[in-house]
Amino acid sequence: MLTMVVLALLSNGDEWAPMPVTPPAAATGAVKAPDLSPRARYETATRYLAGGKPSDASAILDLLIAELPRVPEYFAARAQAQLALRAPLFAAADAQYALTIKPELVSTRFTLAAAEEALGHAANAAYHYRLYADSTSTDVRDDLRAEARARANRLAPQHVVAAPPPAPTYAAPLPLPAAPPQQARAPECRMGSNGRQACGFNCRMGSDGVTACADTPDGVCAMGSNGRITCSQLRGAGEATGGPPPECRMGSDGQQVCGYNCRMGSNGHFYCASRSDGQCAFNSNGTFTCP
Question: 8, 143, 196, 260: which has the highest count of C-beta atoms within 10 A?
């Protein structure tokens, strides 16, 4: 139900709503550089949300929030992603923060109410559902207005019109790590918006439009600050059993590196081993060498 609510909210028409997506033009020989502007990455995140990929959306929004921490629409969108990922505490924190900056984000009140309902804060949820249902904003959809009113009446039959109940203060929202995707049981092929297929496990597309995949079922992928996805490549590494899972780490250079027992060098770059029992050795120049 929460996922359906998130998808419904995405169709609301505020000024940051995703632009209509048009098919890419046929290739003319020249490769157009991907648009990595904040607006373009935000629109990519909202398309991920609409396409049922909240983890990918959250990964992009984490980076945007780290770069521009006062844009309320980023927090509002990430609240929807966290709600779809069944993380209502994070969703409530993001929604509450977005409304603090920009109270006119009416649809975010529905997100906050849904998060509070999931947290068991019935009185607060009912109050915010009613604020959404009673709003005269053109962003309020009739079907969601009716849904909000029905939920409010179910949670708190008496219509409270006075001051809201004492509102819990949710933790200040920080750039949250995206929830790890479910590990793939079988390899897949996914096409990026650049028209190229990538095949493997746990595939993800970066904000640059390029899809990348890990080469083992337990492999991981993560996006760097440049919008590019990096995935672990562990096949044929003589993997030992019983070790820690692979991970992706971003250094201060903004680059993601995936593998095991990762260490960051003095140059700000991470180095990872290709097997779980591998240990990285420090070099005199401040880098690491890993097996």
Answer: 260
Interval 57-101: pLDDT, tens: 888 898 888 888 889 999 999 999 999 998 888 888 889 889 989
Structural element, H or E, at residue 258: strand 256-264
Given this model, what pLDDT does residue 212 score?
Answer: 86
Q: Do residues 124 and 165 touch, judged by C-beta distance below 8 A?
A: yes
Place of tokens 């844009």: 71
Round to whole Å and give the CA distance between 64 and 227.
11
pTM: predicted TM-score of the whole model, two decimal places: 0.52
- Per-residue tokens: 171: 């933790």
The two three-digit tokens of residue 21, written as one number? 């997506």
CA angle 46, 189, 232 (to 5 degrees): 85
High-pLDDT (> 70) share of the chain, %: 74
Domains and CATH numbers, the chain: 2-20+36-155 (1.25.40.10), 188-289 (no CATH)
Question: Rounded distance, CA 179 to CA 221, Å?
Answer: 12
Strand ranges, E, within 171-232: 188-191, 197-205, 211-214, 221-223, 229-231
Kindly state the helix (H) or strand (E) to which residue 259 belongs, with its residue range: strand 256-264
- Residue of 219, 244, 243 whose CA lies nearest to 230: 219
